Amino acid sequence: MTGLILTVIIFAAVMFLLFGPQKFSLMRRQHCSECGTILPFPRKPASFRQAMWGGWICPSCGTEVDGRGRKIEK
Ligand SMILES: [Zn+2]
Question: Which keywords does the record carry (predicted)?
């Protein structure tokens, strides 16, 4: 019985992360902080750091942004 409850809680948590409020959702679309272009999802990591922490190279202006859409200074 405990296992069933745990399964339901985990399922609900995963659903919340995938389809919950935009602020928390993993499915949210990020915008380039420089030009406002919607960044592609799923992303293709361009580096080990991007694979680990998320982030994009903006396809429009080439700015490197982190997982929250903020510009990364090189
Ligand atoms: Zn951009």
Answer: Membrane, Transmembrane, Transmembrane helix
